[in-house]
Amino acid sequence: MLAILPPTDLQAIDKPNDAGSSVNLSWKLSSDDSMIDGYVILRRLVSDTTYHEIGLTGRGVSFFEDEGTQDGQEYVYIVASVKNSRLFTSEPSNNATSYPQVFHTGRINVLLCIALFTAFLGYFVSQARTGKELFIRRIPGLAAVDEAVGRATEMGKPILYVPGLGDIDWTATIASMNILGEVAKKIALYDTPLIVPNRWSVTYTVSKEVVKEAFVTEGRPDKFKEDYVRYLTEAQFGFAAAVNGIMMRERPATNFFIGRFWAESLIIAETGAQTGAFQIAGSDSVLQLPFFVTACDYTLIGEELYAASAYLSREPLLLGSLTAQDYGKIIVLVILFGFTLFSFFNINLLALLEVQ
Amino acid sequence: MKRIIPLFICLLIGFSMIIQFFIPHPTSLEFGSTIYKWVIVLIVFALVLAIGNLIRHHGTKIRRQKKDWPYSIVTLSSMIGMAIIGLFWGIQAESLFQKIYLNVFAPLSATMFALLAYYMASAAYRAFRARSLEATLLLAAAFIVMIGFMPFGQYIHPRFPAFAEWVMRVPNMASQRGILLGVAFGAIATALKIILGIERAWLGGKE
Amino acid sequence: MKWYEVISTIDRRIIYVLLTVLVILPFFTRVTIPQNIMPQTQRLFDFIESVPPNDKAVIMTFDYSPQTMPECHPMAKALLKHCFARNIPVIGVSFDPQGPGLAVDAITSVVDRINHYATSKEDSLVYGKDYVYLGWKSGRIAAMLDMGESIAGVFPRDYFGTSVDSFPLMQRIRNYKEVAIAIVLSAAAYPDDWIRYPQTRYGVNIGAGLTAVMAPKYYPFLQTGQIAGMMSGMKGAAEYEKLVLEHGYARELGTAETGMNSQSMIHILIIVFILLGNIGYFFSRRQK
User: Fold this and answer.
1) Chain A residues close to B115, C-beta within 8 Å
2) How, if at all, do strands C131-136 and C90-94 pair?
3) Per-residue pLDDT of chain C (288 residues; tens, 9 = 90+)
4) How far does the CA of residue C149 sit from the closest CA of chain A (Å)?
5) Is residue A205 within 8 angstroms of chain B, CB to CB?
6) Which end of chain A is more exposed for a tag (fewer CB within 10 A), N or C?
7) Are C11 and C104 part of one and the same domain?
8) Residues of C in contact with A55 (CB under 8 A)
9) Residues A8, A90: contact at Cβ < 8 Å?
């Protein structure tokens, strides 16, 4: 059998931006790559004499990550082309040592964006503090909240507020809690019962506190009832069934579906529409928005959900943060436009963004 | 005090977790995983409160024989029954718990999910009316996609399915990305506002 | 009430009854709505066609759950029929704990049917020689990576507890080098990990059979060739069934075909109702 050429140019470097214990290997494919079975990777400590096999790759692969190194130890590697169990080894690599990094350089762009955005936020919030008037466009879904609460009061029926099916670690759920606080304040002024069903134990405790505090803020702590905020079940469709049951039995005059939703969105929104309730939905789940738009009277689309608490409370500090968001978006749009423009001239700037 | 302590904890943990994201060192990773473990522990405590609420709500309903109280019996007995079966007879593949899960719970969930087909039909009938220019565009897009994805879409024109896919891939995707961009900024702003204590509605509003 | 008012305010219960009837109807009648073959399905089929018989194996991962069974189960069966008809050995695995029950069902139903019609011993399928099912393993990513070194190392025993080394098939197929393609059947984003890990390191070919909701995410991977071919939802399954039947690898179509007929019927029903609603709306507006 003819000799098979081994891979060449074997390089070993510490894997960047990791917690240590990893060395990255790369090599140029053997010229006989198409004929071989694959590559075998062998390693030894510099202080040692014998190589040990540490892994295999398929043919056409010129990269291997050794995830079993000891930090601080020096290693040397060889890679061999394999054909019918025979090894054709490369020249040894340079010596390599793995160690953990203290800063993830691949995330510099994220850090810069956070810093820039925080600066915007700080600037516009301080502007707001000086009493500068900030404009916020009319959001029909939020303008209708007063009407929604008033309607339920007139009809003497409860208001249902579903804070989504996401746990508290979804930002949409947190935004929903902020809106719930504002809605509960309006409700506290009337004698309208409120029903807040929850899917998760943590959202249950948070929403209970939010509603309770809202009643306290409005000076009506006596009006708050423990029964307003309920825990149902973690099962997705069990929750949907329970919410449907509440809508059919207790016939709320107004339904709010605000937060993160999945496949159950239309099931609950359509049931609500069938009971004749006035419905306001809001979600950042792009796939569920069309369902809400078809079945609800008003829908908060995407970022309107996050703007809601500023809109409802009219608190200058929160309004200031909306302006910061707008500036953030302008920057992103300028970058997108710029990159698109450059790509027309065949200049690829994407390489500049080779970070996470 | 009642406000300051939670705000302080929020600020401290929030910033620690942001910093943790930028440090790949094992110590930092360990800190992150410790925090996640704490979250799990806290969730368990919250679960006790939540189940307490469930039992109290339905217990009161049964005791006072409020409207529809028999449903509450079903809820409570199912919950307690499943808990006892799971605790005493285990949850392995062949256990009674698994059998109930697969033969009662799974079909019930599937039934709820299947209702979607009915609701889609009735919602589409009610909502897809050419009331305005926007609604007409929506209607047209819906038609193109529905017919294009059906087997006989190709008989209208051989390239019709490809056109339907284009509608999904280009205009639909473009608008989705637009929404997602706004969502991303909204989410970042909300997170920062909470960490910095600007947003306090979750604590019941202003002091 | 004028006719146009009637058709623009049809009671939802009428819609529900018609929908139910149209879903059930295709199960009892032999209406066949012809399927066009989408290019991604054809590519997966062609890939399996190009695998030489009695050589490399096909890995199938059964990573779907009962909820998505109507979409993924017929895909699995059609693929199995195709592989077995071409004498390509199949290794089944699961990384989703809900997979094994469905995997065993799919494999046994296809194997029993083939063996039922087998005329000689050579024609019938033998467990351990023509196919194995290795069962479920936790730690998905680590497991799929380790299979590149040794499949028997990750699954020392098969689903039924037999030592994997005792199977003639597994003595021959040791790791990804002897695997033609790994086909991921799932309702989740599992192909991501297959592309990111075993494909990057071992150069494994990846195929996919995904629910219609998940599939659009993977069109870019088809363009780049990182996914060799894909079945998308029930339609993808029905297309594959049709291909398998047309090439004489199966005696009849599977359940996806019937499911697709139901689905098409509903689409037609919805389109008809939307049209009725709009006609009614148009005339009632003209009257005003």
Assistant:
1) 267
2) parallel
3) 889 999 999 999 999 999 999 999 988 887 777 778 888 999 999 999 999 999 999 999 999 988 788 899 999 999 999 999 999 999 999 998 888 888 999 999 999 999 999 888 888 999 999 999 999 988 888 899 889 889 999 999 999 899 999 999 999 999 998 999 999 999 888 998 999 889 988 889 999 999 987 887 788 788 888 999 999 999 999 999 999 999 999 988 888 988 888 888 898 999 999 999 999 999 998 887
4) 7
5) yes
6) N
7) no
8) 149
9) yes
Whether residues A116 and A246 share a domain: the answer is: no
- Rounded to whole angstroms, the Cα distance separating B186 from B194 reads 12
- A186 lies in some domain: yes
Establish if C176 touches chain A: CB-CB under 8 angstroms.
Answer: yes
Domain count, chain C: 2
Specify if B110 maps to a domain: no
Calpha distance C106→C104 (Å, rounded):
6
CA distance B81 to B75: 10
Would you call B121 and C273 a contact, using CB atoms and an 8 Å cutoff?
A: yes
Chain C residues whose beta carbon lies within 8 Å of the beta carbon of residue A59: 203
**Residue in A closest to B139 by C-alpha:** A294
Question: Which ipTM score applies to this complex?
Answer: 0.92
- Give the residue from chain A lying closest to C13, CA to CA: A274
Q: Is residue B203 domain-resident?
A: yes
**CB–CB of C177 and A63 under 8 A?**
no
A209 to B204: CB separation less than 8 angstroms, yes or no: yes
Most confident by average pLDDT, A111-115, A121-125, A129-133, A193-197: A193-197
| Contact residues on chain C for B147, CB-CB shorter than 8 A | 271
- Name the residue facing A178 among B29, B181, B202 (closest C-beta): B202
User: Which string of DSSP letters, residue by residue, matches A114-166?
Assistant: HHHHHHHHHHHHHHHHTT--------HHHHTHHHHHHHHHHHT--EEEE--SS
Identify the DSSP state of C89: -
Could you tell me if C178 and C264 lie in one domain? no
Instruction: Show the domain range for C86.
Output: 36-253
Strands A298-301 and A229-231 turn out to be unpaired
CA neighbours closer than 13 Å in the CB half-sphere of residue A247: 26
pTM: 0.84
Cα B86 to Cα B95: distance, rounded to the nearest angstrom: 9
Site from B188, B194, B206, B207 to mutate, A interface, most A CB atoms within 10 angstroms = B188
Q: Which residue of A has its CA nearest to C176?
A: A58
Q: Which of C94, C104, C278, C279 to mutate to test the interface with B (most CBs of B within 10 A)?
A: C278
Specify whether C70 is located in the same domain as C84: yes
What is the pLDDT at residue A348? 73
Give alpha helix (H) positions in chain C: 3-8, 12-28, 39-50, 69-85, 99-117, 140-146, 151-154, 168-172, 190-194, 200-202, 219-224, 233-246, 255-287
CA proximity to A224, closest of A195, A254, A196, A188: A188
List CB contacts of C77: < 8 A, sequence separation 6 or more.
C106, C109, C110, C254
Dihedral of CA B88/B90/B95/B98: which sign? positive
When divided into structural domains, chain B yields a total of 1
Number of B/C CB contacts below 8 angstroms equals 78
Tokens of A110: 């994220």
